[in-house]
Amino acid sequence: MRPEDVVNLDLYPILDQASPERAELVKRLKTELDEKQYVSLPDFIRPEARERAVADAKAALPRAHHNSSQRNCYLQRKGDETLPSDHPRNLMLEASTRMLAYDQVPDDCPVKTLYHWEPVRQMVAEIVGEEKLYDNEDPCQPVNLLCYQTGDRSAWHFDSVNAFTMTLMLQASEAGGDFEMVPNTRSDDDQNYDYVRSVLKGECPDDAVSVARSAGALCIFRGCNSLHRVSPVEGDSMRVMGVFVYEREPGIVGDPEVNATVYGRELSAG
Ligand SMILES: O=C(O)CCC(=O)C(=O)O
Ligand SMILES: [Fe+2]
Predict the structure, then answer these.
(1) Per its record, what are the GO molecular function terms (predicted)?
(2) Ligand 2: distance of its center to the CA of 228 in Å?
(3) Residue 269 above 70 pLDDT?
(4) Which of 12, 51, 149, 215 is exposed most, by the fewest CB atoms within 10 A?
(5) Interhelix angle for 20-36 vs 118-128, to 10°?
């Protein structure tokens, strides 16, 4: 499929850099991201492209890496014995997801077509306030298909490395699978452990916003300082999410240890 047939250009006229419609759209989305820490772009891809990507995910699913683990919200599997047992670093939460790495997704899958298309990359750059973004060049990380079957979930966490995260809902679950976020749970210079603990313990449910995600919706969020999770998926429909990583510099590849954990890749000896 051509990129023009993947992206819904009727709703998102991103092709003409000079058009006032595009400028207006990007400005609105940037303001929303700055205010809420997330912004959702409904019907960003066309139904045929979405269906193709779901079919690709289903075909590759037997090779997916099943991540099933206890971890804290900093994505660590080990706590810190020097801290109290109810310190956020010692609160271990259960997560279970099925991960398809970039090199397990067919090259003509619409999620790759979209990711590598300059008009999308440039639109995202402007929304997140970067002059320019680059594709990640790791064999595993640039584009993933993250699948959630019945009972799968992602536990409260902060995203570690990236200033923003971009996801695309390809297929929603029948029930559950809600993306929830507590905006600005911490800041760059304050870990805010007491508040983080309250959220992890379920003591402030009203602070979490549930981000509506219909199939086809693109979401850009700042997950570094805002705790977020995906509630357990219910029903037979697999929740399929495209996850995209753009970089501020060219030539970025991932950390082999991260790839071992997230994608189940062997760490080469030495
Ligand atoms: O599956 C989702 O909606 C969220 C995934 C997530 O937390 C992430 O990619 O950082
Ligand atoms: Fe995340």
Answers:
(1) metal ion binding; oxidoreductase activity
(2) 6
(3) no
(4) 51
(5) 50
* CA separation, residue 88 to residues 6, 70, 153, 194, 230 (Å): 41, 13, 19, 8, 19
pLDDT for res 92? 96
Name the phi and psi angles at 9, rounded to 5: -70, -15
Which residues are CB-contacts of 102 (< 8 A; sequence separation ≥ 6)? Answer: 112, 138, 139, 140, 141, 142, 143, 144
Does residue 235 sit within a domain? yes
pLDDT for position 32 = 97
- Among 228, 239, 263, the mutation site with the greatest number of ligand 1 atoms within 8 A of its Cβ is 228
Counted domains in the chain: 1
Residues in Cβ contact with 101 at an 8 Å cutoff, skipping those fewer than 6 apart: 65, 139, 140, 141, 144, 259, 263, 265
Q: What is the mean pLDDT of residues 248-255?
A: 93
In this structure, which ligand is nearest to the CA of 165? Answer: 1
- For 22-55, the three-class secondary structure string (H helix, E strand, C coil) is HHHHHHHHHHHHHHHCEEEECCCECHHHHHHHHH
For residue 155, what are the contacts with CB-CB under 8 A and spacing of at least 6?
Answer: 71, 73, 93, 94, 95, 229
- pLDDT for res 238: 98
11 lines ligand 1 (CB under 6 A): no
- Cβ(228) – ligand 1 distance below 6 Å: yes
pLDDT tens per residue, range 145-189: 999 999 999 999 999 877 899 999 999 999 999 999 999 999 999
Domain at 16, CATH number:
2.60.120.620
